């Protein structure tokens, strides 16, 4: 009887596929779940800790503590910078009337995003109402 039970359970275990954690790329959403060095991902989100590699990198506020607002670009062309200083590198440029998501404000600077690109702009060039 014991032999039969062992054979039965062994054959059942062979039918169950093993579970593996997905290999995720740092900085990329991981899908349902995965485990990677210094990072754990769950349900299309990710978190990871990494050392500050460059002081010019933008500070991203935590989504849970931030209320995101819609703002509109006032000038014909507005440069989006990597940090809140006029000397910072330019990520991209926006056009008059473009809408952006305002995540955070720091002094006269606004941390915004547009189509997945994040950066800093002078908040005096943003309007809370649509620009024509």
From TrEMBL:
Residues 65-130 form the SH3b domain. Keywords: Signal. Residues 1-21 form the signal peptide. Pfam families: SH3_3. InterPro entries: SH3-like_bac-type. This is Peptide-binding protein.
